[in-house]
Design a protein that fits this description.
2-enoyl-CoA Hydratase, Chain A, domain 1, ClpP/crotonase-like_dom_sf, Lyase 2-enoyl-coa Hydratase, Chain  A, domain 2, 11 strands, 2 domains, DHNA-CoA_synthase_MenB, 1,4-dihydroxy-2-naphthoyl-CoA synthase, Enoyl-CoA_hydra/iso, binds Salicylyl CoA, about 270 residues, lyase
Length: about 270
Amino acid sequence: VDWTPVGEFTDIAYEHNDGIAKITICRPDVRNAFRPQTLVEISRALEYAREDPSIGVIILTGQGTKAFCSGGDQRVRGDTGYLTEPGTSGAVGRFHVTDLQVQIRRLPKPVVAMVAGYAIGGGHVLHLICDLTIAADNARFGQTGPRVGSFDGGFGAGLLAQLVGSKKAKEVWFLCRQYDATQALEMGLVNTVVPLADLEAETVAWCREMLELSPFALRASKASVHAAEDGLAGIQQLAHDANLLFYGTAEAREGREAFKEKRRPEFERFPRRA
Ligand code: 2NE
């Protein structure tokens, strides 16, 4: 694929081609671990992809073949979270990944994790959050939190339990083992496994298949799955999408126009549907 790079980033690359955006974490020396700057840049790139009407599907990946992402950069982990400027006295840390996870979950276009090598720790949670995962045969999955003094009790635990079952999710978190691509496929953690050499071509083929389909139906399908999983926040998204469509009807327009014209809305002409 002949990707066109867009924007100025230090930790990631944002590229696109023919309806597909590709976001690549470019920190291969640390197995694509993320620091706050990395997450801020991914978030910006996701916003670009969301706002660009020519983009229908987004790929999230890591540079090189050794890792998708190895989670939070432990070198900038402070006592209050991950630090933007480590060593700065009084620096207050954060978990930038909290908002990023929700952003991916909320994004109204499919997000596909393209995983070669390790998806570990917070990097494993990133692939979990993505809508689909295409794995290379060298991919390895796992959580390390309890080994390095951390845990991810939101999507990292809950979504994992929904995907692989509660017992298996506890195994993943309690033992911090690694699972190869075949085991991940058997567990339902990934959608398919392909030879490393075919990873991008296969991922792009899946993306192109989605690009053939109705964008709004895809958006509604994503929101529908999440409506059950995310409680009121999930229902809210689906309901707002319904409202988005309702705005285009004569009935909704009558409410808006009546308000602007300072008159009583004439809803009598609209059917009370059975
Ligand atoms: C990823 C893994 C399994 C790779 O192993 P291997 O043997 O292929 O590579 P190696 O030698 O361990 O790593 C290569 C270089 O990358 C650095 C290493 O320190 C090493 O550096 P040098 O010795 O070459 O200088 N590196 C790798 N991962 C890093 C990381 N996360 N932060 C900083 N440097 C890293 C193996 O490297 C591994 O297990 N990595 C650690 C995975 C981990 O524990 N991640 C953090 C989990 S906590 C988290 O992500 C989190 C959370 O729980 C809650 C909120 C936010 C984040």
